[in-house]
Amino acid sequence: METQDPAVVEAINASGESTLEKAAAKAKKTLDQLINVSLNIAVTGNTGSGKSTFVNALRGLGVNDVGAAPTGVTETTKEATMYEHPGMPNVKIWDLPGTGSPNLKAKKYLKGVKFNTYDFFIILTSERFTENDIMLAKEIKKQKKLFYFVRSKIDNDIREEGNKKGFDEQKVLSIIKEDCQKNLREVGDPKVFLISSVVLEKYDFENLQKALAEELPEHKRSALLQAWPVCSTECLEKKIKMFEGLIWAASFASAGLAVVPLPGLSAGCDLGMVVLFLTRCYYSFGLDEGSLTRLSEKVNKPHLKDLAKSKFVVAIREKALTRLQVSTALATIATVECLFSLVPVVGSVAAAGISFGTTQYLLREGLNDLADTARKIRKEAGLDAILNLQSLRI
């Protein structure tokens, strides 16, 4: 080791590198993936396929929430519209005009699509995929971009078929998927995901996330998982594991061992990383008031919001601003003081003298607190129990 300072040695060991310089470089790269790496998702498809509703679902918003994409029975998207994820500003979801709009001819549509803007495309339909959808997929393929076919409004199909004699949900889903795949043979053997933007817990919504994670570049996966709605216990646990793996890097930067040039963050703003890290966890786990309100209404359990009163949840909610940006998070110094006061070992440490071990301890305490709260809320909501029961009946 280049130094015998115990705190520095501990930090280097945590990074898995051999020197402080290598550890600092790895910390910077890791935190860039957490905060700075952009992810641009394009949602397109036939007019009336539920694109705007799907965009809102990806952002964890309901149709009546502030900032939600407008929805309607008529064409509502006239031009490409960008929507930031409310808790992850580096994730942007683009609502593109419908490919089948009478106001937008296919060839003209393709000329207007800025393919390099987007990391991948989701082509949505609520019925059969059209010639325009296939043409768009072929062009995306030429541009060497990823694309995925999503059959939306599956809950409506199941509801309509449910009253028929001999109804078999699994059989209906298989028929719909096979029909879509047959319809898309011109573009090879594409995967088709059946989803409901209203009931994310069912059907293929999580399978879509898995497929994206497998095919996206490694540095984009963190942004995807952070922003993806918590649609199952498995999804929540993936998020928790991801943040656990990032604690060392956040501690490294917070302790002032690495200069990490992030927007609004200088080497002297070490404590801001603590706020930023835990606030990201807070939004990613769905613990913000908007997410909890929607979940409570969905399962008709108003008391769920009362379960989100752990010490770290309350500290972040009361002190952090609702719109998460690095610069604003750093401005909420009261949040840092509040968080530090929650852990006796940390609270006694002067801000200027914070060490790697101290920061790591605080982040672990905070992450565990937020994770346990999220688990408790999901269990009380009973979503997984309902899904398990339904799967046994199929």
What does this structure look like?
The protein has 394 residues and is α/β, with parallel strands linked by helices. The protein has two domains: 6-35 and 230-393, no CATH class; 39-227, Rossmann fold (3-Layer(aba) Sandwich). The protein has helices spanning 6-15, 20-35, 51-58, 106-112, 131-142, 154-161, 169-183, 205-215, 218-227, 233-244, 247-254, 272-284, 289-299, 311-319, 326-331, 333-342, 344-347, 356-381, 383-393; strands at residues 39-45, 81-84, 91-95, 120-125, 146-151, 192-194. It has a six-stranded mixed beta sheet with strand order 2-3-1-4-5-6, with helices on both faces. Strand 2 and strand 3 form a beta hairpin. The radius of gyration is 23 Å and the shape is globular. The termini are far apart. Residues 259-269, 320-333, 347-353 and 386-394 have low confidence and may be disordered. InterPro entries: G_IRG_dom, Immunity-related_GTPase-like, IRG, P-loop_NTPase.
